[in-house]
Design goal:
alpha/beta, Rossmann fold, 4-stranded parallel beta sheet, 11 helices
Length: 321
């Protein structure tokens, strides 16, 4: 039966429409690992306000980035990554893709692989561990497995925030964009500060990624910054906030900016819209002179080779048999 690999991404609406976005947000924001507020007040807020108002606005943003072939950028690039790794492994391992929320559904793809393979590597495509992403994904897989009589040999791929192959892939994509006059901003998805206070290693791993990338690019400390985007709700989130830093950098004399988002391995709404459009406007309106956005790793050959190397490392012993 042989081994199989299941890549798992966060998720995407099925279409850039209000109903599709509403379905996606309802599943995503109902996860207590994503929003860990008291259940009843949050349920009332989610269904009474958020799911009534946010889908229309979000659908318009998704339409601006939706691909002509009818797929979201996240789904397209994730599929290309799975295909690229399968090709790199020479067809010796089955490689599939699932979304934690939305389609292709995690339960469906996991069931399909378990019906045909006796060894499974679960590989969340999040470089840095967070309980709301990696933790939620592994918990969901575990719940699905509890319904099966036979559970296969199972491996979980860990975070790869400081893996040399991942850092080198980032350096290969970011380095050619930088000029001597540019300042590099590394923007990671945000997280409530209380999660870090409770022991979540996410902030530390983001810092590790940023420092190792700056070192690979031979950047001095004054040539780069890191920040956290996508704040949601009223709680204190990790600082500094990306939008605030984008307004402040021109006042610091850093008027030529290159932005990369190392926490995302595939372009999505948070990179293309939140940073690529809104972030650009914020920076230029604050007095910035130039703004360049580095695409995510997507299907860059260096990243596909790195991802295949990570998979081979996790499959050690299984490939030989």
């Amino acid at each position: 039966m042989g081994p199989a690999v299941l890549f798992i991404q966060l998720g995407t609406p099925a279409a850039p429409t209000a109903p599709a976005v509403r379905d996606y947000l309802a599943e995503f924001l109902s996860d207590p690992r994503v929003v860990d507020l008291p259940r009843l007040p949050w349920w009332l807020l989610l269904h009474g306000v958020i799911l009534r108002t946010r889908p229309d606005r979000s659908a318009a943003l998704y339409r601006a980035i939706w691909r002509a072939d009818g797929t979201s950028p996240l789904l397209h690039h994730s599929r290309q990554q799975a295909l690229g790794v399968a090709q790199a492994l020479g067809g010796t391992v089955a490689v599939d893709l699932a979304m934690r929320y939305g389609q292709p559904a995690l339960a469906d793809r996991l069931q399909h692989l378990l019906d045909h393979h006796d060894r499974l590597l679960v590989f969340p495509l999040y470089p840095q561990y967070a309980g709301s992403t990696t933790g939620s994904t592994l918990e969901a897989v575990s719940r699905i497995l509890t319904r099966r009589r036979v559970i296969p040999a199972l491996r979980w791929a860990g975070p790869f925030h400081d893996h040399p192959a991942y850092i080198q892939a980032l350096a290969v994509t970011v380095g050619p964009v930088l000029t001597p006059e540019d300042h590099l901003l590394l923007s990671f998805h945000g997280l409530p500060q209380r999660h870090v206070d409770q022991g979540d290693p996410y902030a530390h791993q983001c810092r590790s990624t940023a420092e190792r990338l700056a070192q690979a690019l031979a950047l001095t400390e004054d040539r780069w910054s890191m920040a956290f985007q996508s704040r949601f709700g009223r709680d204190q989130w990790l600082q500094p906030a990306t939008d605030a830093l984008l307004r402040d950098l021109p006042r610091q004399g850093r008027r030529h900016l290159v932005v990369a988002c190392p926490g995302f391995v595939a372009d999505c709404l948070e990179t293309l819209e939140e940073i690529g459009r809104q972030g650009r406007e914020t920076f230029l309106q604050a007095g910035g002179a130039s703004f360049r956005m580095v695409p995510c790793l997507n299907d860059h050959p260096q990243w596909l080779a790195a991802l295949a190397a990570l998979v081979r490392q996790e499959l050690a012993g299984w490939l030989e048999t």
